[in-house]
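Help!! Second protein's tokens look totally different from the first
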Amino acid sequence: MRYQISGKQIDIGEALQSHVQTELNEICGKYAGRPTDANVIFSRSAHEYVCEATIHLSTGLNASAKAHAVEIYAAFEACAEKMDKQLRRYKRRLKDHHRDRAEPVELFGASSYILASEEQSDDAEPESLQPIIVAEMETQIPSLSVGEAVMQMELAGAPVLIFRNEGKSGLNVVYRRDDGNIGWIDPSSLE
């Protein structure tokens, strides 16, 4: 497994890097058979250290966790504990899912946009009602079953996931509702 361990405006020593690699190897060995790479970033937020970790699995799914603590090792331990919990749940769901995936998840290219409006005072009238596009990037749309899409959304900690439904050929959306349940939008069922 490839590791990328870095710090944002802080120095990461060899001891911390080897500790991170050892712990992530142990976690991945228990639950994820073939992780491809891991990205761990340490940063400071006021008086606390923040640890963000993302592990890419060979099935195409990503697991990510974020934690903070007063000490850098404690921040990593809390992050590793969250990652362990996510991968344990993922493995449990795979066992319960009755269907083994033989091939990796198929991905399709798409554009992703982030929209933001300018900050306006309450008295000022905007020149146009159109928001400004502040970022545009290429992204991947996975081909998954609905259950796998929900699992990927929860592992990524995302509020919404767009995916190509394996059972049908159209694009679908799963999202977390305000009441805590999962919503599923299947436009092909409207026809």
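Here's the second one for comparison:
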Amino acid sequence: MVIEGLDGAGKRTLTDRLTGALHAAGASVGKLAFPRYGESVHADLVRETLHRGHGDLADSVYGMAMLYALDRRGAVADIRALLAANDVVLLDRYVASNAAYAAARLRQDAHGEVVRWVWDLEVERFGLPRPSTHLLLRVAPEVAAERAERRAVTEADRARDAFETDDALQTRCAAVYDELAASGWLAPWHVLDGEGGAAHTDADSLAKELFLS
């Protein structure tokens, strides 16, 4: 199961709350967050580029999308191992993130060429496991930006990057996420109201609805 949303939407908090609810119900849980900073050379290149390293690489939409995809390609064995060993696997970001941000950067919608390219690359060519469902934490871009800025102040390793500080990009990305969810792209989507914060999500009810029925 994949948790998606804008930077600052509350994905990490929701992942933690769902993990606790599932453990309390006796389910085993595996977790993985993308990009895998500190574990994958491709993820580390992403972080360095988003903080203005590697010249003009950040300007290439397809180049950046390829780095994100290669990070996930390198995790295929880990994902399959988690799926084999656990009742539930929670992924913080996955293929849909690449589709949403690449489309937003190119000012395309969810039916555009780059979304098709991401599918062909990550699903068809790289053979990434398809998720059972997506959870979209839907928040207004300005709310997500405020949270991301506040997080950057309180957490030393969470400085806002070039994508997070681009408010127009975040607005376009939110629209593409809505379109992906409406079309059921890659797997079924459940849209959650994240305006009150993921901490207010009823994780127990959500866990029962999605995983324990």
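Reply: Different proteins will give different token patterns, so don't panic. The CA atoms of residues 158 and 202 lie 26 Å apart.
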